[in-house]
């Protein structure tokens, strides 16, 4: 359906004085919102992955600061700011790997220096959080437009995890590229890796693409390289949780083996992300890889498959080195090799 705008999901919204976000743990069965009125509820929604995906966590974290400000009592501004600092630190700790959360929370915290009364903190911080939501949605559409130029008619695009509307303010990053190409009239079909352990690919990517009428097939994560070997995959587009100045890409666990396969079989491997995902300061050795609960690996859908006495390792992210990346699609354009030089030229 060329020309049709594919923005139908509203993953996050402010409604009647509360924050609402689609509870992705209920998908694809039920499309329901989790309602948050306190910063503790925001932390818990992020921790439990009701809300996930780096850009969306950033937006939601920003509103978490608004809720923290709105719930402050007293009239001492210094005391209020130190309370807000604690809320900011608690939010950032919920998901340590993605950089958008820290970026958004610090940006909203900074807005607290613009007010001269505790009573006006909530409104001032909300202006900043609203601006982040608006800007992130605009970025998603820009990423889509830049990325669509890389996609040809009849391409089969493989993607990993969910870098779609459900991971962002709307429209997506990797899936923005697909959506935009489809809006231009290109016939694109998607291969979605199921993305163990939490199945963001089969539950969320497949859900939102099928909802938009974009052809999608789900594969076991371990099938990706074989499909590349068979020549079934034309392009790979994934999202990112943190992109370093060197071009190292941190993304959902399982991205690195896909990138390695892509290099071996000569399949272009693109990463799509907004500027809020860039971290030009941190060295690769200092990126914290979130280690999640073992039960996510030992069980599927709450049913345990591994024997009782066995333990698991559950790193939630991996780091793809720059030499495996063909290009990074940002809201300011496509960064090509050499990544480090070109990231510096565009963002330095
Ligand atoms: O653990 P998740 O589901 O939050 O991981 C999400 C990813 O790795 C996404 O690819 C990334 O956040 C980019 S989303 C636009």
In brief:
With 348 residues, the chain is of the alpha/beta class.
Explain how this protein is built.
The protein is 39% helix and 17% strand. The chain starts with 11 loop residues before the first strand and ends with a helix. A 7-stranded mixed beta sheet has the order 6-5-4-7-10-15-16, with helices on both faces. It has a 4-stranded mixed beta sheet with strand order 11-8-9-14, covered by helices on one side. It is built from 11 helices and 16 strands. Helix 1 (39-47) runs antiparallel to helix 2. It has 2 domains: 12-139, Four Helix Bundle (Hemerythrin (Met), subunit A), CATH 1.20.120; 143-347, Translation initiation factor eif-2b, domain 2 (Rossmann fold), CATH 3.40.50.10470. With 348 residues, the chain is α/β, with parallel strands linked by helices. Bound molecules: 5-S-methyl-1-O-phosphono-5-thio-D-ribulose. The site of 5-S-methyl-1-O-phosphono-5-thio-D-ribulose has 17 residues, from helix 2 and strand 9. The site of 5-S-methyl-1-O-phosphono-5-thio-D-ribulose (MRU) has 17 residues, from helix 2 and strand 9.
Counting structural domains, the number is 2
The ligands found in this model are: 5-S-methyl-1-O-phosphono-5-thio-D-ribulose
Say how many strands there are: 16
Q: Largest beta sheet: what is the strand line-up? A: 6-5-4-7-10-15-16
User: Helical residue percent?
Assistant: 25-40%
- State the order of secondary-structure elements, H for helix, E for strand: EEEHHHHHEHEHEHEEEHEEHEEEEEH
Rg for CA atoms: 20 Å
| Main sheet record | 7 strands, mixed
CATH level-3 fold name of the largest domain: Rossmann fold
> Helix count, per DSSP?
11
CATH architecture name of the largest domain: 3-Layer(aba) Sandwich
Low-pLDDT runs: none
- Secondary-structure class: alpha/beta
Distance between the termini: 39 Å
The chain-level mean pLDDT equals 96
Strand content: 15-25%
